[in-house]
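PROTEIN FOLDING TASK:
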Amino acid sequence: MYQNPKQAGNTLLLRGATLWLLMALVLAWCMVFMKLKMPVVGLIFEDFNRLLQGHLDFLLMSALLFGFYATKVPLPWTVRWAMVVGAFTNSSLFVLQAIFPALNPPTEGALAIAFRLFSMLSIIITSYGFGRGAVMVFRSTLVAQEGDEA
């Protein structure tokens, strides 16, 4: 398996993973405050279940970014940025739905059209980043290196 002994230039993945992990922690506290019926949080978030989905998605995306970083397989900058941006935008879709219940599901109007466009762009960016990254990591396992075991 081809690995760079240092970070393989993937420091951006580590930075993104830590930021999105912190975002998951903030959302966890928001859920606690919602359950405690804190008025300020209740004014911001209306849908607890969507907030929970956002929290879990930020955790999942952080884990994926940490995992790709840990492989030490060099990834092109386009893949790294697509992973980090996609991890944020994909998870933020749930947070937006928790704030704006009209987006769950999106109905008609400019806000709904913007949300659909944002969703599609997020899915494309996320799929490109993690899909291409997965193919590159898989291909790196096929490259025979001195001292590697099959």
